[in-house]
Amino acid sequence: LIVLFFAVSLFGIILYCYYHPSSVKPLVEKTISRSTGTTLTIKGLSYSFKPMRFHAEGITAVSQDAAGGLQMKISHLVADVGLRGPFGRKTLTFKSLKIEGFDFKFSDNIDRGRIRLKKTSPSFFGRILKRSVAVFLFRDMAFEAAQLVNSQVVAGFGDQIIQVDGIQARLNADRHIGVSCSIQIKWPSQGLA
What is the value of pTM for the model shown? Predict the structure, then answer.
């Protein structure tokens, strides 16, 4: 009886999210912000179920510490996904994942204690929800193809700056990864510029 109640509740939540997509974005922002210790915002989020596709734009995450030592931006993210496998053992398969304009900045003045995935023991409801998702939705994730376009990573450590520009990366169906980029290292105190 309890399992039936949770199954009906989960189905009701899915239907509500399907007919009220504006309620999903704040939930995703709050959940990820809370679990990573960052402030996450999403400018736009849309999805469809036939075909199963997700599109997000204007994703930003900034560390909650005073120094703001972590900043991440994603201009566009598009994912075509599908569920494969038998009931109770489904795999969420990313048929294609394209991330455009990934911009990641990290500096050593960040409060590393604030930016981490917080490991806490899940509540009773959390454990039931996790098991319900595993049984009714998916247990694993797999990637068939992924692409990273026009991206940049900058890391600063004191007066050292490592900048990786023009990142283009691709994972194809044969599981081969191709990456191209340019790397610039600046370290004025050591005469590198």
Answer: 0.72
